[in-house]
Amino acid sequence: MRYRKPNLLCYRVAQVVSFAVAKLIFKRRIIRNEIKGLKGPFVVIANHQAAYDFVNLINTTSRRMSFVISNSFYETLPIKKILDKIGVIPKQQFQTTVKDMRDMKAVIDSGNPLVIYPAGLMCEDGLSTPIPSATYKFLKWLGADVYVARSFGTYFVMPKWSKGMRAGNTHLDIYKLFSKEELKNSSEAKIKEKAEKALLFDAYREQEEIKALYKNGANIEGLENVLYFCPVCKKEFTIEVKNKNTIYCTHCGFEQQSDKYSFMHLAGSVGKEIRYVSDWSRLIYNDLKEKLIRTPNTVLEAQTVIEMINPEKHRFEKVGEGNITLTKAGFTLRGEISGEKTEIFTSINQIPTLPFSPGNYFEIQNGDIIYRLRLKDAKLIMKFINTVKAFYEIKTKETVKLHEREL
């Protein structure tokens, strides 16, 4: 596969625009920058807290870096030709084809830098999205020095569950994680341990140390789409937000208020304070996972509007309606698409999560086709996502135990 060198003029314009956003919105401060002035091929792996994390990274070196981005994002922007000119590599999130691998390897083989976001998806609750296990084998195969670019605070500038951006201080730390010799001589388990230590995060616990202020930081409108389960009465879909900064359960009266630092405080007499959104989200996930362990044949289903990408208009458009069913094996989509009755099965065996927007949609892919599903009961979206994550974790642990028994 031939390497496409980013066009110098287009790349410099992208750097200038990104610098302005990094300075004015993210108010980025650099802790270390060990890729500045660096020559030769290298890989940057970065944590992913917000959709526009790349604006903080693209101007940290004068070198033209090739960024790997979501194919869905790439296909729905009316600037594909510009993206091609700045050398982006589109790939489907959590699925990597042979062509994707060759495109990325071509960057390294040509002596140039490559940027990857291993989690593939920005977080919805301040907690890292799971990193696919194949990532570590892939890093060994690339055969280049690896640097980590760790962002702090960008989650609070662009919470996935909110609308708009919230200007505030963020930090970026770029440092060497592995030499290519270390990668060659390290086991995948060792690479995983070191990489996850560098990449995984809890944005709320980091905020506890930094105490940065963000515009409208107390506004939690939209968070009810993530925190859909009450930790006190254990009811689902009874969580609402009022007065912009108060989240409460309509069934038992559990109520918390968000402060200017985005921390939670108990606002009534029901239940105990859960200070971090990440802790509440973890409670929801763990409760669901335990239920799935007890009842592995659980089936989750919903009615949905089906959308696909219109390549001419660079956007998702409605193509039909149907029913989406999720089991431990995968998704089954039944319905009418473009006037024809359709039934599609998509395995989730190697998928740690899916592209989604809380309260809006999630996406599944069958072959090269991306289906964006807008559930008629939008509150179910987060439960579908948590179920996919939990099934992946359960099956991964089962595989490890089976392997240990065989040894």
Model description:
- By secondary structure, this protein is an alpha/beta fold.
- 31% of the residues lie in helices and 27% in strands.
- It has twelve helices and 18 strands.
- Strands 1-7-6-2-5-3-4 form a seven-stranded mixed β-sheet. It has a seven-stranded antiparallel β-sheet with strand order 15-14-13-12-18-17-16.
- A hairpin with a 3-residue loop joins strand 8 and strand 9.
- Helix 6 crosses helix 9 and helix 11 (277-294) packs across helix 12 (381-406).
- It is globular.
List the helices and strands and how they pair.
Elements: H1 8-24, E1 28-33, E2 42-46, H2 54-57, E3 66-70, H3 71-75, H4 80-85, E4 89-91, H5 98-109, E5 113-116, H6 134-142, E6 145-152, H7 154-157, E7 170-178, H8 180-185, H9 188-199, H10 203-210, E8 239-242, E9 246-249, E10 255-258, E11 264-266, H11 277-294, E12 300-310, E13 315-326, E14 330-337, E15 340-347, E16 356-357, E17 361-366, E18 369-375, H12 381-406
Parallel strand pairs: 1-7, 2-5, 2-6, 3-4, 3-5
Antiparallel strand pairs: 6-7, 8-9, 9-10, 10-11, 12-13, 12-18, 13-14, 14-15, 16-17, 17-18
Helix pairs in contact: 6-9, 11-12
Low-confidence runs of at least 5 consecutive residues: none
**Helical residue percent band:** 25-40%
Mean pLDDT: 93
Radius of gyration: 21 Å
Category by helix and strand content? alpha/beta
| Count of distinct strands | 18
Largest sheet: 7 strands, mixed
User: How far apart are the first and last residues' alpha carbons, in Å?
Assistant: 39 Å
| Bulk shape | globular
Strand percent estimate: 25-35%
Strand order of the largest sheet: 1-7-6-2-5-3-4
H and E order: HEEHEHHEHEHEHEHHHEEEEHEEEEEEEH
The total of helices stands at 12
